[in-house]
Amino acid sequence: MPVTESDHPSDDGGAPGAGAGPGALPADRLIAFYTDHRRDLPWREPGTTPWGVLVSEVMLQQTQVARVVPAYRQWIERWPTPPDLAAEPSGEAVRAWGRLGYPRRALRLHAAATAITDRHHGRVPDTVDELLTLPGVGEYTARAVAAFGYRRRAPVVDTNVLRVLSRATRGVDTRASATATDRRDLDRWLPQDPDTAATFSIAVMELGALLCTTGEPGCSQCPISDDCAWRAAGYPAAAAVRRQGAWAGSDRQVRGRIMAALRDAPAAVAEGELAAVWPDVQQWRRCLDSLLADGLAVRVDVGWIGLPG
DNA sequence: AACCCGTGGGT
DNA sequence: TACCCAAGGGT
Fold first, then answer.
1. Tens digit of pLDDT for each residue in A253-289?
2. How many domains does the structure of chain A reveal?
3. Distance (Å) from CA A302 to C1' C5?
């Protein structure tokens, strides 16, 4: 594990000093860290709507912040409200998604905009339960929108928060995905005041993104290192994760090429031309069929494939 | 519950 | 280089 000596001095049990205690997640210091070191991101600007928060959260699902920023700006400028997006064909959402990856997210975001328009009068719902009914909105995103969009008190646990929670309060590292237990554990540290709770959540997330990272954590700059159970335990390594399959030659690669061809074309593409993206006809056929089944592509006519209308 | 789903940056 | 993995969700 890439832990530097300078960041992790093997001190001999120095006094905890003014720490809140081993395994604590002290809100005051986390919020102070956020105040001092927060990144200026477009979805954090004053005036960001709950719809803006929802769009940013969906884009950020498994996609890095730096790649999301320009896409988010263009998306919000073009579709400032859910009805604006719902009024357009879903294929336009898929095209605007560009190369963010996992284009089903674009389809689901469009479906969410439609549901918000039809069932919620065009206003993004403000309760976790209602948000959970929206396509593409899971346990994390629902709470993120409630907390960051509406300043509700909800335990927001993404991969960053889970890493901080696990390390600081349990003394172990993890690469698992968050569970209901994790949300309950975080809730213990969540300030009661809703607005402060929302700031606390984004502060923990920011700490995980900037300092308490998977790679080389910046423990020497961490505001809660004195309370960190993981540090006290000597930075034990996380359990190994199951390797993902090879990318080259995968269905995902083939699907990606087909979608890129459809996005780059102004209108429908002849199947014969589309087949040129991959030499293995069997695999190409299987992937095209899966894209049609997913609704990411449609057969607009015999032998012609396009983005959904 | 394990597996699938895109793309690209970091090392 | 090859591999990890990044503000997850759906099945």
1. 999 999 999 999 999 999 999 999 999 999 999 999 9
2. 3
3. 41
